[in-house]
Amino acid sequence: MAMEKVSFVVPLFNEKENIESLCNAISSAMDATPYSFEMILVNDGSVDQTWAEITRVSADYKTLVAIDLITNYGQSSALSAGIDQADGELIVLMDGDMQNDPADVPMMIDKLKETDSDVVSGERVHRKDKAISRRLPSRIANFFIRLITGVKLRDYGCALRVFKSDVARNLGLYGELHRFIPVLAVLQGAQMVQVPVRHHSRKFGKSKYGMGRTFRVISDLFLIVFFKRYQNRPIHFFGTLGILTFGAGAVINLYFFILKLLGNDIWGKPLLLLGFMLFIGGIQIITIGIIAEILMRTYYESQQKKPYRVKRIIKSED
Q1: Domain range summary for the chain, segments of one domain joined by +
Q2: What pTM value is reported for the model?
Q3: What is the pLDDT of residues 180-211, one digit of tens each?
């Protein structure tokens, strides 16, 4: 019986120093297994010599597929471009900074088969990142994501994951939702397990992550919670919120109506006006954000559009 093909999908942004080491590590890990494999490297609009380096090493690796996006779309779109190109029955997602170790992938594939799971996600048990700027914010984020989404993963930030291809192809990666890939997989009904994996210090290049993404993560978390709980029944969310808002407004209006009957002047109370404006304004902003996101997904999916444009593709086998 032929073994499944494994497709590695690696988004790259300004990682020229890591390209050759990455290809060597993936090839070394997979050559010792019975699986055929391909390496799909997605250049996400790098401004250094990343594409030139990919082109250079492509002659040395028959299994390499290189995708050059026309501009920098972000990690989610780069992953989506790679997944669309992949033809393996199993799809591995990982970062290109060499902090993930491809040598862990055979073990993860075995775990996927052993547990009959759809997704195996890595857990960095001995992280080599800085404690204050990286590990502490990550632990706080992991706690809140587990608490709010109910998906009990210990490490959401580990990019190394193995998927059955049908799950990976239906993740629906738009915007910056790559941070919540485990939740997106669970929304499909995927069975997921987490296993310890190695983590290495970054040798070349600079991290693309920082404290500045905190507010974007929080915004996306609101969206994920909406999709998880109310995607198929939005009236339960908006109806409940509307009733609560209406009830609060009714109570306030009743209070001031009574004051008016008692002869008090209620016109132009600053606190009342400010509270009313802030409360309604906040609801409108959140609602507009959710509706805009839904409209974007509808725009892409109904017309089969992609959230990226490919400039060129190189396949070493050709």
Answers
A1: 5-213+311-315, 229-302
A2: 0.75
A3: 888 888 888 899 999 999 888 877 656 555 55
Beta strands at 119-124 and 192-197: parallel, antiparallel or unpaired: parallel
| 314 beta partners | 66
Q: Residue 266 gets which letter from DSSP?
A: -
CA distance 298 to 231: 13
The CATH architecture that domain 5-213+311-315 belongs to is: Alpha-Beta Complex (3.90)
CA 266 distance to own-chain centroid: 50
Contact between 118 and 164 under an 8 Å Cβ cutoff? The reply is yes
pLDDT in tens, 130-177: 656 566 666 777 777 777 777 878 887 788 999 999 999 988 787 677
CB 19 within 8 A of CB 61: no
Report CA dihedral (240, 241, 247, 253) to the nearest 10 degrees: -160
Q: SS3 letters for 167-193?
A: HHHCCCCCCCHHHHHHHHHHHCCCCEE
Nearest to 41 by CA among 111, 115, 100, 96: 96
DSSP string, 105-141: HHHHHHHHHHHT-SEEEEEESS--S-IIIIIHHHHHH
Q: Distance (Å, rounded) from C-alpha 125 to C-alpha 127? A: 6
Share of the chain residues as helix, strand and coil, in percent rounded to the nearest 5: 50, 15, 35
Phi, psi of 317 (to 5 degrees): -70, -20
